[in-house]
Specification:
Blueprint: H1 2-12, H2 23-27, H3 46-62, H4 66-74, H5 80-93, H6 97-105, H7 110-114, H8 123-135, H9 139-155, H10 159-167, H11 172-184, H12 191-199, H13 205-211, H14 216-220
Helix pairs in contact: 1-6, 3-11, 5-6, 5-9, 8-9, 9-11
Keywords: Signal
Signal peptide: 1-19
């Protein structure tokens, strides 16, 4: 009962979505030591590449800056999965993401939020919410549901195309990077071709980006003027 009351109060009296960060704060984050592709350590920059491109994808989808995303995760202590799910639910249900994150911070769960009568549900978002609810017990599965839906909408690809990449072992972040390079990179390669370079040819993501004439940093900025 306390959780539901908290939900109603926070939902309609929510604070601004994001606190502004300063350039000094953003520069103080040195989470990734390897940000440049090194042929002698070809996988070293992959984590940075996948993260910066995924943050760009979130930024383009929800129209917030990458620095705000980073600061919420690193300084605000917001779980990256909760942030992604929260942004998605907030958009399709027309609520403040801070409202949802505040409930989680107070001990609430996604299942309680998604089943609350206070959450706006209609014909347009009902199926998405039901699919997300079915996956919510496994947090990783819930993130996959959100990521796949965003990829489908943003890159205008079919469920079948996404499923085929998943079947080949691609993660959500890898799928985002694949379509990002396919659509906005310097290549005529298909999504399947790019994934094959990683799975069959055993190239690293940094190596693949370099092959297409991109640095990890440049790849992360491909969506800067898109969306």
């Amino acid at each position: 009962m306390k959780i539901m009351i908290c939900f109603l109060v926070v939902l309609f009296l929510a604070a601004p979505i994001f606190a502004m960060d300063t350039p000094q704060q953003t520069r103080s984050c040195h989470c990734f030591q390897d940000r440049v592709f090194d042929p002698d350590r070809k996988f070293a920059a992959d984590k940075y590449l996948l993260t910066t491109s995924f943050n760009s994808f979130i930024s383009a989808n929800f129209h917030i800056s990458k620095s705000q995303i980073v600061m919420m995760k690193m300084k605000g202590g917001v779980d990256p999965d909760d942030l992604l799910i929260g942004l998605f639910v907030a958009r399709i249900c027309d609520v403040e993401v801070n409202s949802l994150l505040a409930i989680l911070d107070s001990g609430g769960t996604w299942k309680q939020i998604l089943t609350s009568r206070s959450l706006k549900k209609n014909e347009k978002n009902k199926n998405l919410l039901n699919t997300l609810l079915a996956a919510i017990d496994t947090e990783e599965a819930a993130v996959e549901v959100v990521t796949d839906q965003l990829v489908k909408e943003f890159f205008r690809v079919s469920d079948l195309e996404i499923a085929s990449l998943r079947e080949e072992g691609a993660t959500g972040r890898e799928i985002v990077l694949i379509y990002l390079m396919e659509r906005y990179g310097k290549t005529d390669a298909t999504a399947a071709d790019i994934l094959s370079m990683y799975t069959k040819k055993k190239m690293s993501w940094g190596e693949i980006a370099s092959y297409f004439g991109l640095t990890p940093k440049e790849t992360g900025k491909l969506l800067q003027n898109q969306g």
